[in-house]
Each structure stands twice: as C-alpha cells, then as structure tokens.
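Researcher: First entry.
Model:
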Amino acid sequence: MARPVRQRLRRLFPPIAWRDEALAARQVEVAEHRRQIGELRERVRELQQERVAKRGPSFWTQLELLRAEAAYTPNVDTARLTPLAQVPFKLRNYMLAQSHGVAVPAILDVADTGEDLDLAEATGRFVVKGDGGAGGRGVLLLERSGSGALIEIGTGRPFRDEEVGPEVAARSGVRPPYFVERFIETGDEEASVPVDVKFFSFYGQVGHVLLRRVLPGPEGTIVQYRYVDPRGSDLGAVMPAQRVTPDIPLPADFEEMVRISRHLSRAVGLPFCRVDLYTGPNGPLLGEITRAPGGRRIYRDDHDEQLGRLWVKARARLALDLARGRPFGALHGDHPIEDLYPTRSAEAPEFFPGAWPIVTAPCENWCAL
C-alpha cells in the first residue's frame, strides 16, 4: 500500500522523483569511487612492499633494534660483561681512550656521592658530570668568578659549591661516580662552548660526521648542526627534519679526528658506536663514546641505506675478527692510563666499572687501520 502512495506522490511532485533518481545515481558513483580507492590503496601497499624489497638495510631500523637490545641487556648481563653494557660509562671510556694515546679532559675530582664532590681545584670554567647518563642530563657547565661565586654557563643560574654535586646526582638517569673536569676552551669568540664533533662509526669506518655547535645566551640556547663526510665534504640536509648550518667550520685537526674515531670504534668491539671528539689546546680530546644515539634519526632514504650497509659490513668484519682470535669486548692499547675510579665506597654500584678487567691487545692486530 505504501509503494503506490509513494509512486502517486512522485507523479504529483516531479522534483521528488528527480531527487530520488539523483541520489540513486550518486550512490552508484560513491560505490564506484570506493572500489577505485580500494584498488589504489592496494596498489600503494604493493609499491611500498616493492620499495622495501629493493632497498638495502636501514640505519634507522638497526638503531631501533640496538636500542631495544641495549634496554634489555641489563636484565641478562647483570655483571656488565659485554661491551654493549660497558660503553655507557664515561670514565671507563676515558681510560680506554688514554690507553690508545687519545687525550681526555683533565679530571679534577671524582666522588661516589654528590655531597663528597670537591670543587676546591675548580677555577675558571669547568664541567660536572655523572659517569652514566644520556642526553646531556648529567652535565653541568659552570664558571667561577674572581669573587669565587659559581654561575651556570648559558643560564646565569647561581650555585654554591655544596649544591653542585647534589644537583647533578639528583637528575634522572645519572649514575655515580660524579666527577669534575676542566672546561675545554675553544678560542672561538662566537661559540663559548666547543663544537662537538660526532663521528658515526662502524667498526673502523665513518659514515658521516655531525658538527654540533651550541650558542648559549640569556634568552635561550641556540643549537646548530652540519653534516659532512669523512673527507670533510658537506652533505647538506641528510636529515630532512633538521635545519643545517653550513658555515660551521671544520676543526683544524679534523683529519686526525677521523683517524682517532676509526681507531677507537674498532677498539670498542661493537659494530656501531658514535665517537664524540673536541678540539683541545693540544689537539683532539675524547668527549664520549655512545652506543645508541637518541632522538629520531630519520635520514634521507639514500643516506639511511648507505649507513645501513656500513652497519651490516661492520658486523661481518667484527664477526670475522672474533673468529680469527680477536679478544672479546673493548681492547686497550699500551699507553699509560689514569685510575679514574680511585675509591669504592659503600655507595659505589655493584657493577663498579673500576673493577672490570682491562684487556690489552696490540693495536696493529685489531685496532689500527
């Protein structure tokens, strides 16, 4: 009964009939568009799969796997026997560098607790750090004025001597012991903080070098970046999300830095690490060795693949060296080193880095290139 009524209404009111016909036609069009969209989405998936299959190994993918492994390692390697577990300790890396003839900043004091840190010899500009801690959280840059007052470089925040150690110790993720080191003077009027030269190193090969210049000021800190290859040639914006500053100058000792980073990356005993160096008054100094750099390291596709291939080849070279008799883990050279873990108090961690064995091997066998 309802249908004849609707049909009579359509005859009586032609616009209603036209509207229904138009809606029906539109529904057919929508269904066709949806079918086409489904086909296009499927084609996009196919092309993405083809692209992944054609591409080589990805640096970003391997870095994500390394981060997961580094996070899991403490659960199984409680004694810190593997190089992956030992690399995050700054003073231990200083000792490794010294053993290979690489200079490190002058250490003024080391203490197991922040309260015990002695700043008596800390004059001029100096740095307070924790032996463990990533992302700069455990680093405090200070300057002592002629009157003895302490000011944080960049922010101007005042400190009393007794506040400095506890301030660093209280920061999240920072591990003891805590130490004071002499500030590396740059001689650069524009950059009061030395340019950090970061070598992304693959067991003896350098993929790229990141120059990082920090310009602290009262209105905030400006950070500038530049990427170069091991020859010092500019790579441009290899990380699309990050602006680059091409006028950051190469250090005068850049070539020597490349040699050092290649040497130390082989000594560490990992397929990949980042070796951070600075230019000191008498040549390069080690800043730190990092096993898995933080942040989203999303590089341009071709560059990501290039670094990924270097990583795969480095893993294969290290495996071959181990099969040929290379001792496992970090290898120290024959240069004299300082004992930078002089005490072990009740507050010292169970995995006290100063107690780890120092394995020495001839550099000409496993480190030198």
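Researcher: Second entry.
Model:
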Amino acid sequence: MNGKTSADWKPYVALLFMPLFFTSNLIFGRAATSAVEPWTLAFLRWTFAFLLLLPFTGMDILRHAKLLKAQWKTVTLLGLLGMWICGALVYYALHFTTATNATLIYTSSPILILLMEWIFRGRRMGLRESIGVCFAMAGVVLIIVKGSLAVLLGLSFNAGDLIIGFCALSWAGYSVLLKRSVFAEVPTLTLFAVVAGAGALTLLPFMVWEVAVREAFPTSFEAWRSIAGIVLFASLAAFSLFQYGIKTVGPSVTGLFMYLLPPYGVLMAVVFLGEDLQPYHFAGFFLVMGGLILATAPIDLLRRLKTRIAG
C-alpha cells in the first residue's frame, strides 16, 4: 500500500458511505409515503434530529444566541427552504414520482447553485461550466419528459417531477443563503441544529392539521421504521460524515464524493423499491452526471486526489 496506514484511508472509506446516507432519504421517504403523511414525516424527522443534536450543540447555541436571535428571519427562511420545502414537499412529490426520477432531478442542485450565484452574486462562469450546466439541465428535462417529444410538446408533465425540480431549486437557495458571512462564527453543527429546530417549527401547524383532519399520525411499525431510518441515516449519519469529511480532508475533496449520489440513489431504488430503469433514465443519468462533473469538479483537485491515493 506504498506505506499508507489505515488512518490515511479511513476518511475516504467513511466518505463512501456519506452519499449513501444522504440518498437514503428518498428511499425511506418513498417507502414511507403510504404510511405517513408528508408534513408529519418531515416534522418528526427534524424534531428528532434537533433533539438528538441538542446535547452536543446546546452550549454553542447559548453562546451564539444573540447573533442567532438577530438573524431569526434568515434562520426561519433556511428552515422553510431546507426542511419545509426540501423535506415535506419532497415527501409529497414522492406520492407521484419514483425515487429514481427524484434522485436524478435532485442531483441538479449544484448546477442550480451555480446559476443562482451567477444571477444574484455576479459569479462569472467559464465555458466549461456553461457547457456543463447545459448538459445537466438537458438531462433533467429528458427525465421529466421521460424521453418523449410528445410529452414535451404536449406539456403533460408528471406533477411529482416538477415539484422535485422546485425542491432542487429551493435547496440551491438554501445552500447559497447558508454561505452568508454573518454565520461564519457559528459552528456548522450548531447552525444545522438551530435550522433543524426552526424547520420543525414551520412544519408544526401543517403536522397538526394532518393529524386533526386526516387522523394520520403514524402508529404502525413500518411507519416508525421509516421515520427512524430517515432520522438516523438520512439526517444525523449523513450530516455527521459530511462534517467529518470537511474536517479531515477538506470541503473540496468531500464535495467530490457527492457525485456518488445519483448511482447510489438509482441502485437503491432498483434494489429496495423494485423500480424499473428505462432508456431515458440512462441517458438522463449520463447527461446530468457529465454536466455536473464538467461544471463543478475542480480538475486540478481531481488530479491531486488521484496522485494522493496512488502515492
């Protein structure tokens, strides 16, 4: 192993599981849609996540309480974008579309982040990035229209696919907003806990409505198994490994492992949910992945990473 110790490989092995846990949200969510109402599912997810994080972040929350209180509108908006829209609305969309479609469409979020930074922050995009954006967006459109020109011309789109597209846009907005310098001094895990709590509060009235009107509070073992999977794997484990990656190998290298989201998601949808793959899925996958790597992957970093692993 060219003198490498197990410690050298530990972060990379751990990061192989990170996108798997992130993707599990759509798999657990798709499985839970028949047993749990979407806003109730999202509320329970983020409430339990907040409560489990509180013992580890409580002191820092108190330490930064003045800043967080001053930025309560931004924190609430983050909770609305990241937990209400990208939580409950995603679960609602999964009533109408497949986890495969949702995974591939949601993967376009980094592309949308580039576009939002270009539009609102004046970020310049080079030729390579522009071509990558075009490829990725073409892949998303191909998936939404199911590879059919008739669907495109007839504007007869699947509502779930369109909602997932809106959620991907909201996640891009969440990511851009999260980069605001005002939060620079707040530890990432602490900010995540506060936003999770804010998101749970935005979901609370809708959860109450679902329980009161639809009498749909989860009671079955299958429902709570899905909820536990979403809380433990898709929320806490995924984010903890993301933080571990940033700490040990840096944000740029950690970001490269997020390119594993589409293959992991599609594979899990086929294996665990029995979903079928169509030719347009493969075409859309290669367009989205190719465009994503072309637009966002730092080529020099890829070379350094290859040299580091090989050497």
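Model: Note on the second entry: The longest helix spans residues 221-249.
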